[in-house]
Amino acid sequence: GPWTVFAPSNAAIAALPSQATNELRDDPSLFGHAPFLRRLVAYHIVPRLVLGSDFRSGEHLPTLQHGYPLMLTQYESESTNSTWLASGSIIETTDLLGNNGVVHVLSRLMYAPYGSVAATITLSPLLSAFVALVEEDTEVLAIINGPNPTSVFAPSNEALMNVTIPIDGNQRQGNVEINGSRMSYPDI
């Protein structure tokens, strides 16, 4: 230490897809062995003391996920006091002091960028069904592996399991079956 921890609030953790929290609860060893989760936690820890009064907008703070600093940003508006963000997550509370550092509470988890968009989505076990769909479409795969900036709004496994599909103007509800890496809609 000293350490600075940017910790997601209880509400941020509760907002995670149920599959993520169920996997952690049911298999505590997953945390120690899953590279994605280790990187996720490491990205929330800065190996020095950074108090709220030390925040500088645009500053990049090194994290325990080496090579992936988090970025502090300050937004000001007429209707509210300034709002601080850490890599896009609102800092709800600052300066919870401990004997070996400080904790700042976040509105949601932060995710460090990791390689291409395709590489990033394959790291999350919550997106395995989406990854299986993407791997079936070489055109989409080429786009998200390509050199151009790309944004992907990926549905979680849970969302894909409860998808409603519009067909000929009718809405059909059906669970998505995953057969190996291929997904099909059984009632279509």
UniProtKB/TrEMBL annotation:
<protein>
    <recommendedName>
        <fullName>FAS1 domain-containing protein</fullName>
    </recommendedName>
</protein>
<feature type="domain" description="FAS1">
    <location>
        <begin position="114"/>
        <end position="188"/>
    </location>
</feature>
<feature type="domain" description="FAS1">
    <location>
        <begin position="1"/>
        <end position="110"/>
    </location>
</feature>
<dbReference type="InterPro" id="IPR000782">
    <property type="entry name" value="FAS1_domain"/>
</dbReference>
<dbReference type="InterPro" id="IPR050904">
    <property type="entry name" value="Adhesion/Biosynth-related"/>
</dbReference>
<dbReference type="Pfam" id="PF02469">
    <property type="entry name" value="Fasciclin"/>
</dbReference>
<dbReference type="InterPro" id="IPR036378">
    <property type="entry name" value="FAS1_dom_sf"/>
</dbReference>
<dbReference type="GO" id="GO:0005615">
    <property type="term" value="C:extracellular space"/>
</dbReference>
